[in-house]
Amino acid sequence: MEDLMKLKGKNIVVMGVANERSLAWGVAKSLYKVGANPIFTYRLDRSFAKLNKLLKEEQTASSPLIVQCDVNDDESIKNAFHEIHEKVGTIHGVVHSVAFANSEDLKGDFINTSRSGYAFAQDTSAYSLIAVAREAKPFMTEGGSIVTMSYLGAERAVPGYNVMGVAKAALESSVKYLAMDLGEANIRINAISAGAIRTLAAKGVGSFNEILHKIEETSPLKRNVTQEEVGDMTVAFLSHLSRGVTGEVVYVDSGYNIIG
Ligand SMILES: NC(=O)c1ccc[n+]([C@@H]2O[C@H](COP(=O)([O-])OP(=O)(O)OC[C@H]3O[C@@H](n4cnc5c(N)ncnc54)[C@H](O)[C@@H]3O)[C@@H](O)[C@H]2O)c1
User: Is position 118 annotated as part of the catalytic site?
Assistant: First the structure.
């Protein structure tokens, strides 16, 4: 299977590990299983410390490159990808697992979203993918794959998801436009629409517990999904197995999105 995936030794940038629950950490664990070479970016010092601890526990063969990157800052993104290229050479894949909105914009009525809160959620959670793709592209000279994380709130009005739902709608649309631009360079880009998983980011969504219960009760698989399942699907998107797929949103949500 490893051979079919063609990910052995491939340099995959993983953005967004905050702790052991992060979807990005699920991706990293799956990448290690197929022999890839993850490179990590983090924003806060506390994530850097957490990441080092996790990597020690994972007992990886070699210590991976870890680079600071704040996706609200163009210079920071540019510097991060230059540093990654200088240290590891060609980049074969990028996992964008980053989002943020002010907590006051995830409470109460959507109609009260502030102008600045709207812009901030879009900047961090949707525009960041465009900026990341632009800075990564020059170093993805052998083609490759970019994966981002979305949620059903992009297309349905999920109570409590509010401004983040609109940001995810922009993110999913950006995936399609980016797929058009990146295709010529044989770079694919897709989104995974993940089911609800208890992480730090999920804590900001007030209705989260209700969402978890609803999925358990009504989804075709009658259960919630795991970080490992999202990690494995992400690796499938990064691998040779998905070489004919770009611009797509695929649901890893126990089938919840299909029900009427
Ligand atoms: N947990 C879920 O239920 C769920 C479901 C669907 C989609 N998602 C998406 O998955 C992605 C990862 O979230 P998660 O649930 O693993 O939570 P998480 O809190 O573990 O990860 C979010 C990451 O975003 C990073 N981040 C925020 N602002 C940043 C900035 N300016 N620069 C760089 N990094 C920044 C944080 O440091 C953190 O590592 C997000 O896009 C989220 O919307 C999560």
Answer: no
- pLDDT tens across 30-40, in order? 999 999 999 99
> Which of 97, 103, 161, 219 to mutate for ligand 1's pocket (most ligand atoms within 8 Å of CB)?
97
CA of 26 to the centre of ligand 1 (A): 12
User: Residue 83 half-sphere exposure, CB side, CA atoms within 13 Å?
Assistant: 15
The residues near 108 (Cβ < 8 Å, ≥ 6 apart) are none
Residue type, 20: E
> Of 220, 223, 168, whose CA–CA distance to 192 is shortest?
168
Identify the H or E element spanning 210.
helix 208-218
> What mean pLDDT comes out for the span 122-130?
99
Tokens of 96: 């964008």
Residue 148 lies in a domain: yes
Structural domains in the chain (count)? 1
CATH number at residue 100: 3.40.50.720
Q: Which mutation among 51, 100, 148 tests ligand 1's pocket best, with the greatest number of atoms within 8 A of CB?
A: 100
The pTM assigned to this predicted structure is 0.98
**Domain-located, residue 160:** yes
Alpha-carbon distance 199 to 75, whole Å?
28
Render pLDDT for 84-93 as a digit per residue (tens, 0 to 9). 999 999 999 9
